[in-house]
Structures are given as structure tokens and as C-alpha cells.
Design a protein that fits this description.
Blueprint: E1 3-7, E2 14-19, E3 44-49, E4 53-56, E5 62-65, E6 70-74, E7 77-80, H1 82-101, E8 109-114, H2 116-126, E9 134-138, H3 145-151, E10 161-166, H4 174-186, E11 192-196, H5 204-220
Parallel strand pairs: 2-3, 2-8, 8-9, 9-10, 10-11
Antiparallel strand pairs: 1-3, 4-5, 6-7
């Protein structure tokens, strides 16, 4: 998959696969890396893949980068193309396998995503057959709770999750983010939840909190 690669030092020991939101591309979060305030060691490889172009039904069929088609929107739900969601999960699994082939263990691979990208990160991380290093879910939701529950992998039950949302998000309502958080808790997880006074975006406080969380992962993982 076409992607932007940023390495914080030689011989990365960790990888973060970061998925952008609907209509954006891999460059969207590349500038965030230096703002995270991460230590120089261990080095991290950030992978920012580009979603494929496809028509998006809820946007009048306009062709844009998207991880899956969104058929309709409601404040408390989404109707989506599950086949497209599963296709994107497979793409991310291939990225995970590529990092493993480069010598990075699954436990040192973190999936991150914003909005639609975060939805793919949730599904991929929580249904992956090997335990991963964590999930970062920014301003996002679980697009198909039934699918997730059907394919939930017990190895991920206590997977570290950083979940954050804007209190004034008018694109992905806070209720959707909270529902994802609550589903993880029901399944036995303990996501770290943050809310910020912002809309459908990120803020400096959030980036600093995420940097702290990532820094903790680097020193506490196997």
C-alpha cells in the first residue's frame, strides 16, 4: 500500500500504523510526529498509508480517499459497506505483516486512526489473531459492533487503548465515541478515555496526552 514513512531514528524497534480520516490522505498526521514529544530511543517507524479512491454514497457519490463506503449518516449510527471495511482491515493486516517481516514483533506494532481511519484501527486491532501493542482511536467509532463482537479475539481483551473525542464534534457525535468506549468495557477492556473542548479535529492538549501514552507503551511493553 502506498504510504508515507517517518522514522524517528535508525533501526526502529516499534511501528505505528496511522490511518487518516475520510477524504484526507497519509500526509494529514505526518506533522504530528515531532509534536508528540517522544524520547529519542527506542526509534519508531510511523507508517501513514493512503486510502484508495472510491465513491462515497453519503457524500453524493463523490470520489475521494476512503477506507470504506458510508451509505448513510445519523447522529447515533452509521450505515456502512462492511465488505469495504473488511477489505481495509486486510490492507492493514498486510502492513502489520510487512513490519513483522522487517523484524518488529506484533506486540510492538500500534494501530492509530482518526475518524474513519480510527474505525478501521478499532476493528483490525481488536480482531487481530496476534496481540498488538495498542490502539489509538481519535474522534472515531466502532462502525459495526455486531461484526466486532462476532470476531473479537480474546488475546486483545486488555489491549492498551487511547480513545479521545471532541465534546463539540458535529461529524462523529461524541455519543458514538462513548458507545465504542462502553462496548470495549463490556468486552472486558479498559480504554483510556479523553474528551476535549473541540470539534472534529485534534488539539495540542490531545497530542501531548497521546505522546505521554505512547511513551508509556515504549517502556512497559515486552
Amino acid at each position: 500500500m502506498d504510504a508515507i514513512i517517518v522514522e524517528t531514528g535508525p533501526n526502529p524497534a516499534w511501528a505505528v500504523i496511522w490511518l487518516h480520516g475520510l477524504g484526507a490522505d497519509g500526509s494529514d498526521f505526518e506533522p504530528v510526529v515531532p509534536e508528540l514529544g517522544l524520547p529519542d530511543t527506542p526509534a519508531i517507524r510511523f507508517i501513514f498509508p493512503h486510502a484508495p479512491y472510491q465513491p462515497v454514497t453519503c457524500n453524493g457519490g463523490y470520489v475521494m480517499r476512503a477506507w470504506y463506503d458510508i451509505i448513510s449518516l445519523a447522529r447515533d449510527s452509521r450505515k456502512i459497506d462492511e465488505a469495504g471495511l473488511l477489505s481495509s482491515r486486510q490492507r492493514v493486516r498486510e502492513l502489520i505483516a510487512a513490519e513483522q517481516a522487517r523484524g518488529i514483533r506484533a506486540q510492538r506494532i500500534i494501530l492509530a486512526g482518526f475518524s474513519q481511519g480510527g474505525a478501521v484501527a478499532y476493528l483490525t486491532g481488536l480482531t487481530h489473531p496476534e496481540r498488538l501493542g495498542g490502539i489509538v482511536a481519535l474522534s472515531t467509532y466502532i462502525p459495526s459492533p455486531a461484526l466486532l463482537q462476532a470476531e473479537w479475539v480474546a488475546a486483545q481483551v486488555d489491549l492498551p487503548v487511547f480513545a479521545a473525542h471532541g465534546d463539540h464534534d458535529d461529524v462523529v457525535a461524541p455519543e458514538l465515541g462513548e458507545a465504542a468506549r462502553d462496548l470495549l468495557r463490556t468486552l472486558g477492556g479498559a480504554p483510556e478515555w479523553h474528551s476535549y473542548l473541540m470539534s472534529h479535529s485534534v488539539c495540542l492538549e490531545e497530542i501531548r496526552d497521546l505522546g505521554r501514552w505512547l511513551g508509556q507503551r515504549l517502556v512497559t511493553a515486552d
